[in-house]
Structures are given as C-alpha cells and as structure tokens.
Amino acid sequence: MRISEIPLVVVRGAPAGPQLDHRPMNIHPLISQTQIADAVSELGARITEDFQERNLTVLSILTGSIVFVTDLMRRIAIPHQLGLVQASSYRGTTTSPAELRLNLDWLPELRGRDLLLVDDIFDTGKTLSTIRSRLEEFEPASIHSAVLLWKKSRTVVDMTPDYFCFEIPDEFVVGYGLDFNNHYRHLPYIGIVSDE
Ligand code: IMP
Ligand code: MG
C-alpha cells in the first residue's frame, strides 16, 4: 500500500492544530553528515587495528550513543560483542549536584574482555569516568573509551577519551543521537541549538 492510499482517520472534536510537546528551535549546522561518516570510518579502522587479537566488547552508553554506535560497529572489521549501559543523570533540585543513575542489567560477561565504552559526547567527563570505575568491578582485561564529540574545555575529571572524532566548542549541540529534552536525536548531522 502506498502512503497516498492509507485512509485518513479524522478524529472529530479534536482541538484544531497540532498540540506540540516542544517548541521548535533553530539548529545551526556544525558538522555535516559526510564529515561524520568519514570520521566514523576512520575511527572504525583505528579500532580494528588497535584491537586485533583482543576480545573486544563494545559498550554503548544509552541513549545518546545509539546512532553513533550502530554506525561505528559496522566500521569495526573484527569480531566483537555488544553490551548496553543505560545512563541517565537527573537533578533533584537546582542546588543539588546531578546524580547519575546506571542500569548495568543488560551487560554480557565482561571478565577478561577488552571494553570499549562508546558515548555521544565527553562534556565534563563525569559520566564516562563514573561508568569506567563501576565497570572495573567486573574485572575486564582493559577499558578504553570512544566518543563522537569532545568539549575539551569543559573536562573536569582526571580522564580523557582514548578516541574521539571531533573536538567542539562549549556550545549545546543536537543530532546524530544527541538530544535537547529528548528531541532532535534523529537529525543526521550535528547542529548548535539556538533561540534565534
Ligand atoms: P558529562 O558527564 O558532563 O561528560 O556529560 C555527558 C552527557 O551529557 C552526555 O552523554 C550527554 O547526554 C549530555 N550532554 C553534554 N553536552 C551535551 C550537548 O551539547 N548536547 C546534548 N547532550 C549533551
Ligand atoms: Mg547522553
């Protein structure tokens, strides 16, 4: 069935006009789809080279890394396993520091494996550094990290990403998995959010 043939269901009595749950923002392109694809290919090739003869497990930090990790995996030309770590930080009050909640229930066996933590962005670095210490309890052979974006000027932890595709300025960005209030993850490029 073609889209034009799908019958339209008209809900009578519904309020006129769409009820948007978000206010559309302006997005200024920062990194194009082609630049991302080239950088992800290059990163996949480096990881393929660096993890030859190792027992690689890629750990995707959800939700932001979802687009990046699926593209990256297809550029890693050696057998590897995939695990998922769900991470969400929330702030109780404006004065208390953000607390990181982790769900480690979806992990495969990590003991003796070479772990590669994959996240969308390394901002302050607190998320990856916390996850890294938690994963040490599983006694892996090694832990490395790969991110698409690194806001280098914002780093506050004693850790830097082992692999990154782009260093970016201190701007709030969306697209390719990164969100603003859970919107804009679908954009195929990275853009800066602005009110103008
Ligand atoms: P960190 O713990 O400060 O490194 O923050 C990492 C998390 O903050 C990322 O996984 C993102 O979810 C979020 N984040 C930081 N900067 C941005 C941004 O510019 N756009 C969207 N999310 C961001
Ligand atoms: Mg995130």
Task: Note down, in words, how this protein is organized.
The protein has 196 residues and is of the alpha/beta class. It has a domain of 127 residues: Rossmann fold (3-Layer(aba) Sandwich), CATH 3.40.50. The strands form two sheets. Strands 4-3-2-5-6-7 form a six-stranded mixed sheet, with helices on both faces. A three-stranded antiparallel sheet has the order 1-9-8. Strand 3 and strand 4 form a beta hairpin. The longest helix has 18 residues. The chain is globular and about 55 Å long. Bound molecules: inosinic acid and magnesium ion (MG). Magnesium ion (MG) binds next to loops.
**Class derived from helix and strand content:** alpha/beta
Share of residues in helices: 10-25%
Order of helices and strands: EHEHEEEHEEEE
Count of helix runs = 3
Outline type: globular
Q: What can be said about this structure in brief?
A:
The chain is α/β, with parallel strands linked by helices. It has helices spanning 33-50, 66-73, 126-136; strands at residues 26-31, 56-62, 81-90, 99-103, 114-122, 142-150, 163-167, 173-174, 190-194. Helix 3 (126-136) links the parallel strand 5 and strand 6 (142-150).
